[in-house]
Structures are given as C-alpha cells and as structure tokens.
Amino acid sequence: MSEFAGGTGDTDLEGELHVMGNLKIDADRLWGDLMETAAIGGTAKGGIRRLALSEEDRRVRDWFRTRCEALGCSVTVDGMGNMFAVRPGQDPELEPIAIGSHLDTQPTGGKFDGVLGVLAGLEILRTLEATEFRTRHPLVLVNWTNEEGARFSPAMLGSGVHAGKFDAAYAYGREDADGISVETALDAIGYRGGEPVGSMRFAAMFELHIEQGPILEDEERLIGIVEGVQGMRWFDVVVEGRESHAGSTPMETRRDALVVAADLIGRVTAIATAAGGKGTVGHLEVEPNSRNVVPGTVRMSVDLRHEDDAQLDAMTAALEQQIARLGEGPVSLSLTEIWRNPVVPFDADCVSAVAAAAEASGYPSRRLYSGAGHDAANVAAVAPTAMIFIPCREGLSHNEAESCTLEECAAGAQTLLDAVLIYDRRIEGAQPA
Amino acid sequence: MSEFAGGTGDTDLEGELHVMGNLKIDADRLWGDLMETAAIGGTAKGGIRRLALSEEDRRVRDWFRTRCEALGCSVTVDGMGNMFAVRPGQDPELEPIAIGSHLDTQPTGGKFDGVLGVLAGLEILRTLEATEFRTRHPLVLVNWTNEEGARFSPAMLGSGVHAGKFDAAYAYGREDADGISVETALDAIGYRGGEPVGSMRFAAMFELHIEQGPILEDEERLIGIVEGVQGMRWFDVVVEGRESHAGSTPMETRRDALVVAADLIGRVTAIATAAGGKGTVGHLEVEPNSRNVVPGTVRMSVDLRHEDDAQLDAMTAALEQQIARLGEGPVSLSLTEIWRNPVVPFDADCVSAVAAAAEASGYPSRRLYSGAGHDAANVAAVAPTAMIFIPCREGLSHNEAESCTLEECAAGAQTLLDAVLIYDRRIEGAQPA
Predict the structure, then answer these.
(1) A336 part of contact set with chain B, CB < 8 Å
(2) Could you report the per-residue pLDDT of A418-429, keeping only the tens digit for each?
(3) Do B269 and B328 sit in the same domain of this protein?
(4) Residues 230-289 of A with CB under 8 A from B
(5) Do B315 and B181 sit in the same domain of this protein?
C-alpha cells in the first residue's frame, strides 16, 4: 500500500518546484512526434485511420518500440498486445509509475485522441534521459490495445483484461466485421507478447488525454484536473403504437409511436438538467419511417450520466416513472438497461499531484469529471490513478477535424511530467507483492 | 354539361327504389372473384404482390378482359394501359358512367385496396346482364394503371395522364428501381393500347374503395359517403445542431438537433389538432445516430392535411411560425414544401346519388373526406365524380393483413350499383363534345 511520506521536508511545493525547474519538455519535439506518427494511417482530411491490430497499428507500434529502445527502455508486450516501455528508477524495489494511453484510432479519428497520452509519455522519457534525471520509482510508458473499440467491441479491451474486468478468453474471441478475432489479429501483426496480462503492477498511473468536450475551451482553462469518470447507464426504449395512414387516421384515434417518443426525449432532457447530470437520446429509428404513415414503432437509446451514483439512481427512477406515465396512454413503452458503469473516482493523491503540477506551471485549470470512458478508468481498479485533460477545438473528437494547439499539448505533457515527479517524491513506494 | 332532370316525376326516391328493387348484387359471386384474383400474385401471408405492369399484373388484366368480354362488353386499352370495358346503354348519344379503380397492389399489399372497386364493377355488370337491365347511359368499367406508385413513382399515374395532370411523355419515362421505364413495361406485357389517353369521356365516375382509416369501423358505419379528398402538403425539415460527445458535453452548451426535432413533433400535433386537420411526422433520420453522440442533424418530414384549403394555409403559417421560433435557439431549422395537392371536392350530384343509395338499403353511413389520394381525385378534374368507402379492420391497408368482410364488400358493391342507377336516372346526359 502507498501513503504520503509526510514530514520528510521535501514534499512541500517549493521543494518540488526546485526539482521540476530543470525539467522542461520540448514542445516542438512532441509536436514533431505527433505529426510524424499522424502519417501512419493518415487520411486526406488530416485525420488518422489506424484501427486496432491493423497493419497501420503494427507500423506505429514498431515506431514506438524503436523510439523507446533508443532511450534505453526495455519494451515488453503482454498477451493482449499491451506494450510496456520500462525506464529504471533509483529504487528497483518500487513498482513503476505508469504513464500512457493508446495509439489506435477511430476509422475517421483525429490526431490527438489517445496518441497524445502516449507521445507525451515518450517526450517525458526523452526529457528525463536528456537531463539524466532518475526518478525514485521506475517509470513505464504504456500503449494499451484496442481502446477505441472501433474494430473490436468492446472498447478499452486491453486495459480491461489487464485490470481483470474482462477475461482473456473473452477478449481473444472478439471478432471484427470480417470475422477476424482479436487473437488472430494479434498474431497477424506479431504483437501477442509473452508477458501474462496483468502481471505488470503499477505504483500509480497517469493518463493525459484531450477533453473531448467543450468545458475547458469555453472557460479558457488549459488543464483539466480529472477527479474521476462519470457513472453511465445505457437503456434501450421501444415505443409500440399502431402504424396507420397519415391521411385517414384522425388525430384523436392515433397511436403514434413517434409523438410519444418525442415527448420522452423532452423528459430525458428535463431529468438530466434537473439532476445536474447528462441525458442523451443519440439513436432513434422509426418504423416504417414513411412520410405518409403514422409511425407504429420507435426504437431509441437513452444515455444517462452523472458524477454521483446516487444521483444516477434518482435519474434512473425518474426515467422509469416517465416511461410508466407515458405508457398509460394508447402507446406501450418498454425500458431495458443494457449496460452500466459505476462512477470511478480517481485516487486523491494522484489527483492532488496533478493539481500541484498545474499550479506549479501557473496553468489555468479546473477540476472536472470525465464524461467518456478511458483506459485509466479500468486501471483505477488495480492502481491509484488520475487523468489530465487539455482542451480540444469545440469539443470535437472521433473526427478527422479534431484539433489542439502545440501550446495545449505542451502544457498537458509538462503537467503530466510534473505530476509524475511530484507523486514520485511524495509517495512511499509500495513493495512488490 | 349535366344537370338534374327536375320535375319528371321519376327522380324521387320511391321511383328509384322501385327500379333498384330487382337489382341485387350477388355477394358470394363478388367474394369468389376477390379470392380468385387474390391468388394472382398471392403471398404466403394472405396478401397480394402485384406490382403495376408486372407479369402478375398482366395475368390479372387478362383475367379481367376475359370476364368483361364474356359479359358482352367491348374492352379497349389506351396508351397508358388503362382498360375500359364498355356496356352499351339505351341512349348511344350519352357519355358513359364510369365505375372502377385499380388492380395493381403494393409489394406487400392486401386483397381489397383497389381490387374491390374493379371487381364490384364487374359484379354490377353481371347483375345487370343477368336481369337484362339496360341503363340509359352506357357504363364503363375502368382498371387504372399504376395507382399504387409502388413500382413506378408517382402514384395514380394512369388516371393522372387521363385527366391531363401528367404529360404522357413524362409518364412513359418513369422508371422502376431496375431502370425499366413505364413505356418498356407496358410493351413487355402487351398492354400499351391504341386508344389516345383521355379520349374516353365520362358522364360521371364512381369509385368504391376501402376507407384505409378507422372512422367507419370505430363508428360502426357500413358506408362512407365521400365528399372529397383532403388537401395535402408535404414538407421537408432539416434541423442542424452540433454533433458532440454525450459524456462530455454539458446540457447547457449542447446544440442537440433531436431535442429540437422532438419539440417540433409536439408542435405539429398541436397545430393539426387545433385546426381539426391532420399533421404527421412519418419519416425521421438522425445523424450520426449513435448512442453516445449528441445528434448533430435531423431530417424529417411533415405531412399536413385538411378538408379546407384556407385551414391548410393557416396550418402552414403556424408551422412556419413554430420553425422560426425554434430557430431562435442554438439550432437552425429549414422548411421546404416539396409537394401540395389542393382539396378536391367531389360533385354534389354524384355525392347525393351515393347518399340516396346508402339510404335506400338502410346502411348506416356517414359523410367524410378521403385522407388518401385516389384515381377518383384525378378524374374529378374532368368529370363529375364521387367515392364510396367501406370499413376495413383497424384501418389497416398497404398491408398483407388488410381485411374486410363479405358483408362489407357486398354493401359497398350494392351502394355502388344503386348510386349508378340513381345517377343514371336523375341526370340529363351530356352530349359528346
């Protein structure tokens, strides 16, 4: 177990700043890596198509391995293809502090989602190597397999098996649209490694990522201190009315599934707004979906999120109540919860290290919760974890137009480095099990 | 021009009843024809697939021609494939009274939509032939080409060219999904006839059809006296918001196209209900339509109908106003009218003949407007016209489960016969032009 190394005199911010003063990441070098790897699977519109375990993924993995080994790191690969580049610390008895994210992208993904978290880690290793600075803990830079879930569902598969959330056999059996399994795809690109999945234990993990939302940009903050990941519940709703002729069915005898679905959409918005959470109907299908036919059936999704599981319970209850109320009319409704993820609070010490790091550089920052899932949310189950967000233009992500500035990427990488250094000095290392 | 032959003493209901007393259609014979022809293109689920100008359409046309000729009728076909079976009247100077509908169906159509109107006409010809009754006017039983518009768009094509609504060249050029034109398809089944389209002029036309709505069934009426066809306007609405992440976009900064579309759906319902008309959003597409993405774009249809064009103008204005109001928010909306059909009022004398016929048999009836388009709505532009509706189960139509009883079909056919007889005696014939 880890705890604050209180009263040693070197854990105050001034001492930390002294150490950190000499360690400045090279923004241009980081930007150069981002642009260089963006060409691996680069699209005409300036995005990246680098699906998990594809030939493009193999190429970026090879690039990553070569760069890490050039810095003197030993690179190991586990059975899920997760890659670990280890830089020794002063104390070989300590578990490593992990940094990293993922190098795979959406089919029409951007240049920053995931990639930034890995390449900022590489930049940190370079900075440490250039100044010959050695941390107390070893450091490990991680590239997690299939975070996006775009080729193989579900998302965050590599970190999920690492954290014991998914069984390895389940993960190996997942297939892409062409029926190719994860296992086959790992072998095809030569990235099924020999290390047992989950055998690499972390003293902590820090993940830098773009926000994928508009909050930081809207408030002109450079750094998001991520306190956790919102709880999330996914529902399927089926509204069953009666298909009938738009010309000959009087308004008062209709059983219009879409009119009721529309009413529900308004109620979902009201529930989320009242609770200070989020509620979204993102998917909706109408049957028969013909201009002159009163809709007989609507199938729709409801996505509810909140930073507090009790509030999420209350939102769920309110949704059930509205569904029951609407079902008293001439149309029937069914509600099925298909998935839920509880709130994942990040580790207080890790979050505190991120906050201190942002403060040290004077970056305008705010605390927030992640609305999206991340590898860090899986890792949080097995190690103290936190995340750092930087803004991205208009919150746009999973899109070739995804955009961040060099300055934002640099601020994120610097905060990541400083958070690791602060944590490295503050925390008494855990002994290997 | 035609007018009531007032003061001749034989136009009162009693005199009409005397004539009609001997002329009773044979319900079983009619039902037999319905079931026999339902086998031509019959589906496993009890419906009919008999697309316009298909091989199945050729077979039912051949069947129809043979039956009509067996009754001594001369069958002619015009250039659009519209079929006319003429039974001479007492006065060869008079234009014929037309009865009929269409024998084509939807891809998964029912056994009654259109077919009933033609086969009830055939049953009427048989009844007249069996009793050797001769009307003053010639009668003409019509099978209109491509009423459904399922294979070739638009619908009501044959009657549309007949009435001068569509140009023949336009109609010939319409293509099905395989690129086969109407002209080619007519030739392929040997039903491009030699008669100039529109050359057959009518003293009047009566069309029997299933209601395709629930009003008659709900009110337990056997006969609908159709006073006209509702006016109809079709609009396309595009709602443009901003696609964003469902987890990381706060409710207050969203530009959710579906939330606004849902609001509009409620307003369309309110507009229609307040005006005593009909308003339907039957088609709606969400982009990107992904569970965890706030919808960026919604494309939807709006269908407005009313029996009064002035009310339809007011409904349109209200829709424009609501679109403008919603467009003041963070999402933009556009409204495009893509099609309109004005109200088609049927001929007062023809409607009166239908009402007298229903009363003569003591059938419970009500006056109503047709919500759907029909060949009669086209013919109304060139001849006095009315329609007769019978109930169908739950208003279901364009569906293999479309259903009517033998008694309902018989009541419709009897009313059709009696309306023709009443009109034949009441009206001074128009002279051919």
Answers:
(1) no
(2) 999 999 998 764
(3) yes
(4) 230, 232, 234, 242-253, 256, 258-259, 261-263, 265-266, 269, 272-273, 278-286, 289
(5) no
